[in-house]
Design goal:
The complex is a heterodimer of chains A (282) and B (295). With 282 residues, chain A is an alpha/beta fold. Chain A contains 9 helices and 15 strands. Chain B folds into 2 domains: 51 residues; 218 residues. Chain B is 69% helix and 0% strand. Classes of the chains: A alpha/beta (282), B mainly alpha (295). Chains A and B meet through helix 2, strand 7, helix 3 and helix 4 of A and helix 4, helix 6 and helix 9 of B. Bound molecules: adenosine-5'-triphosphate (ATP) and magnesium ion (MG).
Amino acid sequence: MNVVFENLSRSYGSVRALDGIDITIGPGITGLLGPNGAGKTTMLRILATLLPPTSGTARLDGWSTSHDRERVEIRRRLGYLPQDLGLYPRFTVFEFVDYLAMLKELHDPRQRHRRVREALEAVDLQDVAGRKIRTLSGGIRRRVGIAQAIVADPQLLLLDEPTGGLDPEQRVRFRQLVGRLGEHRTVLLSTHLVEDVSAICTSVVVLWHGRVLFQGAPAELRKRAEGLVWSAQEASSDAVASWRTDNGKLRVIGARPGPSATPVEPTLEDGYLLVTSGSPIR
Amino acid sequence: MSAHTPSHPSAALDAVANGRVPDSELVAHLESCPECVAYLGSQAKLDLVYAWRGIAAELDAPLPSTGERLLALLGVPQWLARFTLQIPSLRPTWLSCSTVILVLATLVTIRLVPTRALDVPVVLVVVPLLAAFAAAFASARADPAYEIVAATPLSPITALFARLGAVLGANVVLCEVAILIAGNRLTTGHRLRFYSGLSVGRGTLALGWLLPMAAVALVAAIVSARWRPLAGAAVGGGAWLVLVAVTAWISSDPVSSLWGAPAEIAYAGAVLVLAFLLGRSSARGFVLSPNVDFD
Ligand SMILES: Nc1ncnc2c1ncn2[C@@H]1O[C@H](COP(=O)(O)OP(=O)(O)OP(=O)(O)O)[C@@H](O)[C@H]1O
Ligand SMILES: [Mg+2]
């Protein structure tokens, strides 16, 4: 599925959460990176057809989210994990995912139950299928949310901070799952974790104050920091960022902090920090 | 299979692979042991992993609830029944509270109206209030999973009117019972019997109280679709209370001013307009409205 934003803006009162977004996102796994309040959730909510844009349009395979009938077509192909996940505490895990599968028009009970079971196995929840949701921990609830998002085999998967609250083992498992899903679908996931992006995303969009600062492959984002990352004893005052690493030295992003500084290989995080710093360097 | 230490029932698995039906102990073990499921799959000619997944899914699948079965009798499909029942104002606790409030209102009405200590029958005032709360807490935003549910292809109009219809239906039944009781206990010919429709004869549901109740519920539904359930209940219920208070203050005969024919015609007009407005706004299908704070 192709996602196209055409000069899309969204305001809440005087706050401009998205400001003139003009990008196209193709199949594969795209990571939405950005600080708190950058507009990631707003963007995903607009694509999930929950929130109308203030101006401009969002199209998915040509269907506009602002058009009543086309919106239903989008919803038929959509899997969505919201950031604030509300579940029914009285339901069992299986019952909840089954309920969402029903609403996603899987009406044949046997086939649907099998799909629910498969979705639960995909997130390793088959053993708690019969547990009431109110008895589950936060990370497990998150996985229930992921299971309901994938149960109807969506073409477009929108995941708002899917790895929040997952333990390291489950994060790895989640990456494998999304990697598999992203082979034939469009997956858009928002995250604060740059590692998530470097581990699975084929492309990355950096949002900052409602604007797109970068769109491209993760390797390209990393390249932005090439020649601008240093290992040094001291940081210069105009450094974009600096922090002490486990070898006792400072890792400095920005202009060469001093003659004794040695250049180091940039990471994706360096590229991200540089792009979002609004720094005049480059 | 080397990994199959004594805790893995290899012999029993081989028997099942050869066609024996697994006993309950083995079923329980298979449920928690992916290794044995895989082993079974590798031993059997059939695709047992696939088959097992089907069995496990059926074991985990919930039975329809009583409410769902009731609605099924009325021809409501299971998905719509389950959807309809996921609102706070159809929970048994909610309905019990409504019943208690109606019982109290009925008792007060029976005691006070004949003594003329009270001009307006309390039960007729309470009915639209209950409906305002019930309708507000049947709105999309009262559903904890509204963000996920709204992103499914379920038609927003179906969603809205299924839930609103269900809560109003439940309230109509409760209120009709309360008003029947109150009406019957009052002296024959008392006006309440007329305004609650009882003078038309037993079993006739001439519902003078129904139109104000519907109008107030629709106001609550419209407001809660844009803001939040509590705001909807407050605006709908508040508007009704203000109307009652003002009428009681200025009218020498508040009962006929509030429930007489001219008032009923006004309520009917309001119901039509409000239902149209509600339908139109929900057809747009965005649960998060364009210009209000929703968090
Ligand atoms: N319902 C709302 N009412 C008013 N302002 C809002 C609302 N929702 C979001 N905003 C504002 O819009 C901006 C973007 O918010 P959004 O939730 O999209 O950011 P985000 O990138 O998802 O942040 P986070 O990483 O913290 O989840 C923020 O400034 C936020 O305060
Ligand atoms: Mg967010």
